[in-house]
Design brief:
May play a role in DNA repair. It seems to be involved in an RecBC-independent recombinational process of DNA repair. It may act with RecF and RecO. This is Recombination protein RecR. The chain is α/β, with parallel strands linked by helices. The chain folds into two domains: about 5-55, Orthogonal Bundle (Helicase, Ruva Protein, domain 3), CATH 1.10.8; about 70-195, Dna Topoisomerase Vi A Subunit, Chain: A, domain 2 (3-Layer(aba) Sandwich). The protein has eight helices and seven strands, in the order αααββαβαβαβαβαβ. The protein binds zinc ion (ZN).
């Protein structure tokens, strides 16, 4: 394989990554070309390792390196509350606030008719199963404050409330249309503390 061919292959792969345009791909590729072999090997190994070691928690679908994630395994957590989020990165955002000590449930997306994602494509069945066999008093819905997030929240409220479990939603104050992961910790922490029943 020629040098140009190898470089092009790296540029193509880097260019596929989210948030990396052709210019950034070039910058990273040339950086790696000039870096020593050991540094490049560490990056390649970290990528392979995360793919081999990290999978989804069998209980809440957060990222985990064991059968259950570190939060589900933590005996100090309040096991009577579940905070429902769209993606594992939302768990990280809420954890960073330090305002919440319960468990989580990651849906793996939100209801979006445009993208043909309905309730059955998400981990909602598993959530309802947890409400059946875990002693849960409150479900806090923390989907993003946009149309899909709100649609998902009202679907969940309609489905869960008849089971006799309290359902709440993060307080307003989060930027509408934004993503939880970009909310600052103070605002997100306040939205959790001031959550309201729906
Ligand atoms: Zn878990």
């Amino acid at each position: 394989m020629s040098a140009n061919h190898s470089l092009q292959k790296l540029l193509d792969e880097l260019g596929r990554l989210p948030g990396i345009g052709p210019k950034s791909a070039q910058r990273i590729a040339y950086y790696l070309l000039e870096a020593d072999a050991e540094e490049a090997r560490r990056l390649a190994e970290a990528i392979l390792e995360v793919k081999q070691e990290v999978h989804f928690c069998s209980r809440c679908f957060n990222y985990a390196t064991a059968d259950e994630c570190s939060i589900c395994q933590d005996p100090m957590r309040d096991t009577t509350r579940i905070c429902v989020v769209g993606e594992p990165r939302d768990v990280q955002a809420i954890e960073r606030t330090g305002s919440y000590h319960g468990l989580y449930h990651v849906l793996g997306g939100v209801i979006s008719p445009m993208d043909k994602i309905g309730p059955e494509q998400l981990h909602i069945r598993e959530l309802l199963a947890r409400l059946g066999h875990e002693d849960i008093h409150e479900v806090i819905i923390a989907t993003n404050p946009n149309i899909e997030g709100e649609t998902t929240a009202s679907y969940l409220a309609r489905t869960i409330k008849p089971l006799g479990v309290e359902v709440s939603r993060l307080a307003s104050g989060l930027p509408v249309g934004g993503d939880l992961e970009y909310a600052d910790e103070l605002t997100l922490g306040r939205a959790i503390e001031a959550r309201r029943a729906i």
